[in-house]
Design brief:
The chain is of the alpha/beta class. It folds into two domains: 8-17 and 265-380, Aspartate Aminotransferase, domain 1, CATH 3.90.1150.10; 20-260, Aspartate Aminotransferase, domain 2 (3-Layer(aba) Sandwich). The protein has twelve helices and 14 strands. The strands form four sheets. Strands 2-8-7-6-5-3-4 form a seven-stranded mixed β-sheet, with helices on both faces. Strands 11-12-14 form a three-stranded antiparallel β-sheet. Strand 9 and strand 10 form a beta hairpin. The longest helix has 35 residues, at 249-283. It starts with 7 loop residues before the first strand and ends with a helix.
Length: 383
């Protein structure tokens, strides 16, 4: 009997493998006695509540926040929806209906913005440079007295390009404009995030080797006041009234453990990823590839490549039994169309269709560049 060989997984920006240390702590709650964190009248419920609060503190510690500023959700998509749509009522009540964002945001931000536009909100997009980033000064210059919100991601999920959220946050700190950051790709990976001035931060567990289906919206309290968000899910009033529903104790505990591990191993993970990146780019140097985005601004564990003359779908099809990579956001993969991120950066449809994303993390010491080189050369020669 032949043993089936699985392809090497290099799509960490879509989701990361779950850390087995995380699995172990989750197993206790999956296999243990019934535990509803809201049932505080008996020891089972109290034990579950204690576990949730310990995990909440671990999540908050990643960016130096207080545990009472962490609202658990199902993931970054729900968090971003809550942050953006949840501000609509306040915007209507105050007459502040102007919002600034960019066209390279994740659909979890763009779609809620589209929804608010249908309600009469004015959505303004800061232009994207060819390097895959927005000019923070341009974002700041667009702010007005009626600007309700600025929503800019920290790192793009397709290119890995980091945005200068520091400058934006600093400029908005003493204004009435709220600052939301989609940090799904940087939370637990970029230590500098803790130094950014923001009001709301969308994060998720499955990008840092934790479980899928759990995330959080981190909401800063400033001068005793919390961002005036209206809840989208009503019920028992869990999560400080902002997100009702029975808490998923095993997932929350797993998320907390993943956060704790990420803080301890962050520097080591980045160092290894940087070496892997340098070695890989050196090995494929002769293919004539173009890197999409400014490499000086890129995260260490991801690269978005354009291989002239090679259709990305064809490349992934040939590679599928040996290496698993992608050509865009996992949330948009059902539609075979050019990446909205790459198009916003100025690439043509054809150039976007020639682009692939390769992303990695702990456990990946080397990318088998020789396989990719061989396949690309075969495609270029028409087999």
């Amino acid at each position: 009997m032949h043993r089936k060989i699985c392809p090497l997984y290099l799509d960490y920006n879509a989701t990361t493998p779950i850390d087995q240390r995380v699995v172990l702590v989750m197993k206790v709650w999956h296999c243990g006695p019934p535990a509803n964190a809201g049932s505080r009248t008996h020891r089972y419920g109290q034990s579950a509540n204690d576990a949730v609060e310990k995990a909440r503190a671990k999540v908050a510690k990643v960016v130096g926040m207080s545990s009472d500023e962490v609202i658990f959700t199902s993931g970054a998509t729900e968090s971003s929806n809550l942050a953006i749509i949840g501000l609509a009522a306040h915007g209507e009540a105050t007459g502040r209906k102007h919002i600034i964002s960019s066209r390279i945001e994740h659909k979890a931000v763009l779609e809620p913005l589209k929804f608010l536009a249908s309600l009469g909100f004015e959505i303004e997009f800061s232009p994207v440079k060819a390097g895959g980033f927005v000019d923070p000064n341009d974002v700041i210059s667009r702010c007005r007295d009626d600007t309700l919100l600025v929503s800019i991601m920290h790192a793009n999920n397709e290119t890995g390009i980091l945005q200068d959220v520091f400058e934006i946050g600093r400029a908005l700190l003493n204004t009435q404009t709220f600052f939301h950051i989609d940090a799904a790709q940087t939370f637990g990976k970029e230590a500098e995030l803790a130094e950014v001035d923001f009001d709301m931060l969308s994060v998720t567990g499955h990008k840092i080797y934790g479980p899928q289906g759990i995330g959080a919206l981190l909401i800063r309290t400033r001068k005793g006041h919390r961002v005036p968000i209206t809840p989208m899910i009503l019920g028992g009033g869990q999560e400080r009234g902002l997100r009702s529903g029975t808490l998923a104790v095993p997932l929350i505990v797993g998320f907390g453990e993943a956060c704790q591990i990420a803080v301890k191993e962050m520097a080591k993970r980045k160092a290894i990823a940087s070496r892997v990146r340098l070695d890989f780019l050196s090995a494929i140097n002769g293919l004539g590839c173009e890197i999409n985005g400014d490499s000086e601004r890129s995260q260490s564990h991801v690269v978005n490549l354009r291989i002239p003359g090679i259709d990305s779908e064809a490349l992934m099809l040939v590679l599928r039994d040996s290496i698993a990579i992608s050509n865009g956001s996992a949330c948009s993969s059902e539609t075979y169309s050019p990446s909205h991120v790459l198009l916003a950066m100025g690439l043509s449809d054809d150039e976007a269709m020639q682009s692939v994303r390769i992303s990695w993390g702990p456990g990946i010491e080397k990318i088998p560049a020789e396989i990719i080189v061989s396949v690309v050369e075969s495609l270029q020669s028409g087999f």
